[in-house]
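Predict the assembly for these two chains.
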Amino acid sequence: DADVTQTPRNRITKTGKRIMLECSQTKGHDRMYWYRQDPGLGLRLIYYSFDVKDINKGEISDGYSVSRQAQAKFSLSLESAIPNQTALYFCATSPTSGRADTQYFGPGTRLTVL
Amino acid sequence: QKEVEQNSGPLSVPEGAIASLNCTYSDRGSQSFFWYRQYSGKSPELIMFIYSNGDKEDGRFTAQLNKASQYVSLLIRDSQPSDSATYLCAVKENYGQNFVFGPGTRLSVLP
């Protein structure tokens, strides 16, 4: 199922580099989310957006920024990557109506910061 | 800080047995509860959601909710090796639109 795609799927970078992770969706959902997953900590919300003009910080937004370029695109940036940002990053979408509580996840981006 | 807690496991059960996964949450006003399954290296996928106290059954899966005890569980009947995965409990915030995830319980079904 390629309704939610993430690029790149894997990335190794060095401390201090700027990194952008991209998410695209063809589901037509207004709501998009960025999470990171660390072993033993589950999924933690970084940023979320309920429409193109709405951007909100999540639980762990420090060191990250986002851009909602269109309904279908939501990008996550690390302005100056640090090693403790090494994690698995997931983008997710959800509809506004109907099964609004269902989140659909992308395949994930594994980021390693050396 | 809203919290969702789960035993990290691993929980090991023999094939054909019932696997019982548990989750507690701190936000007493939460109304929506979810179970996601995540295979190693893959993304989470929703398998059950429950809104009302009591049991909700879907095939081999049963979700149980007790709001008074702030407890939600997932039962998997006739467990199969293909059920081996990490199960994430998620709770939707009462006054927000976001989801708080537990750390997950790793289930291993032994053939």
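The longest strand of chain A covers residues 42-51. The two ends of chain A are 32 Å apart (CA to CA).
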